[in-house]
Amino acid sequence: MQAISTQKFVRIAPRKLRLIADMVRGKSVSEVLEALPFVRKDAVKPVEKVIKSASANAKVKGANPAELVISKIEISEGPRLKRFRPVSRGQAHGYVRAMSHIKVVVTTKSEARNPKSEIKTENTKINKKKEGEK
């Protein structure tokens, strides 16, 4: 059984969120929720919120919360806010405020697949195609 939760337009850059996403990918939900409060990054709060939401969605569907595993977590780029800061001599320097979209897919341990093995098989298929083309 899968449960999905998304959070859009989070006002944190995707690069910062991906550090946390890489840390929690493939681990059990209970283990992650115990460890995240000790990570000293501001990006932990929105990721933790989405994981809790996905866990609650799975619980509503009838899954045992102790058996849940984060099978997939995606951090994608959202829109960018263009801003400027006034500087000397009447000039302005522009900068960009990035937003992110977070998507978490939670499954039970029996249905969870190993994401590392999928990546290896995909890469070997791609490498074989490239070798055949040469």
What would you say about this model in short?
Helix content is 41%, strand content 34%. The chain is an alpha+beta fold and 134 residues long.
Per CATH, the superfamily is: Ribosomal protein L22/L17
Which descriptor suits the 3D outline? elongated
Radius of gyration of CA atoms, rounded to a whole number: 19 Å
Largest sheet: 3 strands, antiparallel
Order of helices and strands: EHHHEEH
Residue runs with pLDDT of under 50 for 5 or more positions: 115-121
- Terminal CA distance reads 43 Å
Q: Specify the CATH class.
A: Alpha Beta
The total count of strands amounts to: 3
Strand order of the largest sheet: 1-3-2
Number of domains: 1
At the third CATH level, what is the topology name?
Answer: Ribosomal Protein L22, Chain A
Strand content: 25-35%
Number of helices: 4
- Tell me the structural class: alpha+beta
State the helical fraction: 40-55%
Mean pLDDT: 88
